[in-house]
Amino acid sequence: MEKITLDAMRNFIVENELTDSVAITLHPDSFDELVLEYLDTNGNQIERPFEILGIEILQDTTGNVPVNKVNLLDTVE
């Protein structure tokens, strides 16, 4: 993905037919930019947990996800 944006994330979720059995983790910089765009688009309101099209979006805390890359986590145990 060239740049993580709301539209790009929506397209990624739809194109990959993601369900709530996964979560998406993003590099902290990408996550922050996405959250700021989301807040701007939604009148400074954000849901907890942060979701797009029902898919939870998380900030990577491991340092393993590069900027502008998407990592999928299996949420089903």
TrEMBL record:
Top-level lineage group: Bacteria
Protein name, as recorded: Uncharacterized protein
Organism, as annotated: Flavobacterium rivuli WB 3.3-2 = DSM 21788
